[in-house]
Amino acid sequence: MAFNVNVTNSCKILAVMGSRYDSASTTADVVVTDVAPGGGSYTAVMNYDAAGRGRINIPIDNLSSPYGVFKVCIVEGGIEYACKPILIHCDIDCCLVKLTNELLDCACDCPRCSTALAKAQKIFLLLKSAESAVEIAGVSQASGYYKDIYEKYSKAKEICDNSCGCDC
Asked: I need a surface site. Which of 14, 43, 78, 145 has the fewest CB within 10 A?
């Protein structure tokens, strides 16, 4: 009667695990919706075993975007039983890595270093706040949390601008 959603394998897989809600169900649709304006959705079928447990690994490449805030829902027989938010933030993590590396290279207490530190702090706090909102939203199911998570993630991404540190 519950499900978990995790991002694994360096932001390459969205792992969804859960148990069936309707005792007659043998499968469930896992619907992943990008909460960004104009974001798309992706649906995959999760099979349940004899004990009513299911697991599916969804490649992140199948989603409308490789990063951002997504709403993951379990649908059985056309009925939406539960939804949870997931924040895929490897892009922000890479930005923080680059900024941290810049700080490690600083040998002085100069304005450039102060600016990089302030930028990294803002991004880190926004990301941690968004992650906390994901945890709260997973328990409360209130839809306002999706907007809150998206706004925090979007602001962190905006501050990162071109400070990409991985795979760019």
From this structure: 78
- φ/ψ of 77, rounded to 5, equals 55, 35
Contact of 74 with 43, CB cutoff 8 Å: no
The torsion region of residue 159 among left (phi > 0), alpha (psi -120 to 50) and beta comes to alpha
Nearest to 105 by CA among 93, 121, 117: 117
Confirm if 74 and 81 have CB atoms less than 8 A apart. Answer: yes
Can you tell me the mean pLDDT for 85-101? 91
Rounded to 5 degrees, what are φ and ψ at 94?
Answer: -65, -40
Domain interval for residue 103: 90-160
If asked whether residues 13 and 74 sit together in one domain, one would say yes
Q: How far apart are CA 35 and CA 89, in angstroms?
A: 14
For residue 17, what are its two tokens?
């695990």
